[in-house]
Amino acid sequence: AMVVCFYLQIGFSIGIMCAIPTNILTDDWRTEVAVPTLLTLTILPILLFDVRESPRYLLAKGMTGESFAELTHIGEKNGKKLPSNSFIAPMRSTERGKVYGYFDLFRYSPVRSYTINLCLQWFCIGVVYYGLTLASSQFAGTVHTNLFLSAFAE
């Protein structure tokens, strides 16, 4: 999921960066919408064909064969050969059938503190990002330059 979110964010930033030169070069709003949209949609094949299922998720669901296949695929892409199936045996003996929910994030003290910490960080980062976006028109430089630089930094 993290990779998918990363790819979606990259597409959004590329779309904004392409909208600025398009806005400067043309006065047609349709072109201003079409160019970033078409360039952003080029990310879609990566999302559909390159993002694979997490081996950890597959293992948690009890699909050890599929998990090993995903690990093998990742190893091939990285130019590494995985060891034999010897590390799959301990994985099979792990607890199965237990279903976890959102309330389990608050049940145990260490996990609770991590969850609250991450939620607060997420909130603060969102507020700062929102504030910088609103204040970008007040920065030195043109609106186009400020928006392009903020999209590039993103």
Automatic annotation (TrEMBL):
<dbReference type="InterPro" id="IPR005828">
    <property type="entry name" value="MFS_sugar_transport-like"/>
</dbReference>
<dbReference type="GO" id="GO:0022857">
    <property type="term" value="F:transmembrane transporter activity"/>
</dbReference>
<dbReference type="GO" id="GO:0016020">
    <property type="term" value="C:membrane"/>
</dbReference>
<feature type="transmembrane region" description="Helical">
    <location>
        <begin position="114"/>
        <end position="132"/>
    </location>
</feature>
<keyword id="KW-1133">Transmembrane helix</keyword>
<keyword id="KW-0812">Transmembrane</keyword>
<dbReference type="InterPro" id="IPR036259">
    <property type="entry name" value="MFS_trans_sf"/>
</dbReference>
<protein>
    <recommendedName>
        <fullName>Major facilitator superfamily (MFS) profile domain-containing protein</fullName>
    </recommendedName>
</protein>
<keyword id="KW-0472">Membrane</keyword>
<feature type="transmembrane region" description="Helical">
    <location>
        <begin position="33"/>
        <end position="49"/>
    </location>
</feature>
<dbReference type="Pfam" id="PF00083">
    <property type="entry name" value="Sugar_tr"/>
</dbReference>
<feature type="transmembrane region" description="Helical">
    <location>
        <begin position="6"/>
        <end position="26"/>
    </location>
</feature>
